[in-house]
Amino acid sequence: MIFADLLFGIICGLIALPLIGVAVWAFNRRSPMPFFAGGVADNPKPEDITDVKAYNKAIGTLWLCGAIGLVISGVVSFFSMTVGIVALLIVCIPGIIILIVGYNRIQSKYFRQSSAKSPITK
């Protein structure tokens, strides 16, 4: 059982690493950071954002929150696998809704009123 706990914790940590990388990238980026990766995602232009630095910080914070949730799930699993799995489910299922709501709030705060909104908020 200790091997399974260790493996679960390592996997959660490995999944969190790219999210942390995207968060750091967003914090250091000078142009507006798109939240999604390709597809119909919005790619905001600098003129559409009121404060690019604060916008990128908010986007990076969203990514970092997801990564922290994964790390916490992995650490908790060392003490109780059941609690770790429940924590992971809480991070994944309601976490997606929280990310969508958070991104919509970021858009309403930092997008200029005259600019076109992304497909999510139309």
Describe it for me?
This protein is mainly alpha-helical. It has one domain (2-110). It is 68% helix and 0% strand. It is built from three helices and no strands. It has helices at 2-28, 52-77, 81-110. Helix 1 runs antiparallel to helix 2 (52-77) and helix 2 (52-77) packs antiparallel against helix 3. The model has no long low-confidence stretch (mean pLDDT 84).
Topology:
Elements: H1 2-28, H2 52-77, H3 81-110
Helix pairs in contact: 1-2, 2-3
Salient structural properties:
about 120 residues, 3 helices
Concise synopsis of the structure shown:
With 122 residues, this protein is mostly helical. It has helices at 2-28, 52-77, 81-110.
User: SSE order, as H and E?
Assistant: HHH
Distance between the termini: 48 Å
Main β sheet profile: none
User: Number of helical segments?
Assistant: 3
The count of DSSP E runs of length 2 or more, i.e. the number of strands, is 0
Mean pLDDT: 84
Oligomer: single chain
Instruction: Give the overall shape, derived from the CA principal axes.
Output: elongated
Structural class: mainly alpha
Q: Helical percent range?
A: 55-70%
Radius of gyration: 17 Å
**Strand-residue proportion:** under 5%
| Unreliable residue stretches | none
Number of structural domains: 1
